[in-house]
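Hi team,

Filling in the usual template for the complex we talked about on Friday. All components are listed, including any nucleic acid strands or ligand strings, so the model treats them as one assembly.

SUBMITTER: L.P.
PURPOSE: interface mapping
COMPONENTS: two
RESIDUES: 382
SEQUENCES:
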Amino acid sequence: MELLKNRIREEGRVKAGNILKVDSFLNHQMDISLFNEMGKEFSRLYAGEGVNKILTLEASGIGLAVITAQHFGNCPVIFAKKTKSKNLDGDLYLAQVTSFTRGNTFDIQVAKKYLDAGDRVLIIDDFLATGAALLGMVDIVAQSGAHLVGCGIVIEKGFQEGGSLLREQGVRVESLAIIKAFEGDQVIFAE
Amino acid sequence: MELLKNRIREEGRVKAGNILKVDSFLNHQMDISLFNEMGKEFSRLYAGEGVNKILTLEASGIGLAVITAQHFGNCPVIFAKKTKSKNLDGDLYLAQVTSFTRGNTFDIQVAKKYLDAGDRVLIIDDFLATGAALLGMVDIVAQSGAHLVGCGIVIEKGFQEGGSLLREQGVRVESLAIIKAFEGDQVIFAE
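RESULT (copied from the run log):
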């Protein structure tokens, strides 16, 4: 998606450890017009798939997931939680995730009553790198018996294993920008 | 807002410790149509105030903040972060918050470059109870020199001190539903 790639070229900053900072428009300050363009693109990519629920992971996936839902008939969005909360009880689907950016391991949680075998689920997230968060969400969808339509990702680090791991499992992954490499402070996109 | 109060009456569940569970539409599964009605109501309440930025706190404020921004000319939304992340560096505004639902204390963080004296800020959050999260965000807006237009809250627990603490500071607080009390499993709203 050229609009997104141009924004990454203009505002993204490459930091040590293969970190790409896009906090000016994606995961701290959020550009709502850009989010709508991305949501529209996901709806084009997944048209006719009967998506009736969107699943994401707190926190930085939520904004895009909610905007994207507007392009799928205002379907409900569920955000998986990373920590136990008094706001969540009852039967839960659990999956273990290790975070690359935070360097810790935790269970992500979804209340069982919000996902079941009748659902057709689109997973939305901002980044795909090692794939840990996505694999956790894919696992939760499998536990629920719902049909996983696919994943909609903003930025995939194509030089890390997450995309391959998911696609080898037969999961459809649509990433709006795939990064082949960082060369110094330059972002090189895959064709 | 009657639409919201009816939804709380129908789906809200009162739990021990003055917890109101609204995870079917607000803070786990999210109802995007309802979010748009709430965003529209905030835009009516704060019409003419020149809001050019929305501030919220991860995670459960993000969805509503992003939808609400669409009713304020697609202004940028910033979500304050609760934990240190490799995605956040540089100069930060910090404020300390103690969470009622999680029972811990932490710093919330906003990168200085995204808020300054030229901004007119609306703070959006899902709940107002002790006011800790809101007071933290109000503090951050004050540090930045921006003008705080006010706060837009979904559910205020009117029997806790947060609303009074904020209003006594001269902060405008608009809550779409104010709860006077819980009586058994019933929610009693303020007039």
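MY TAKE: Helices of chain A lie at 2-11, 32-45, 62-70, 132-144, 162-168. DSSP finds five helices and eleven strands in chain A.

Thanks, L.
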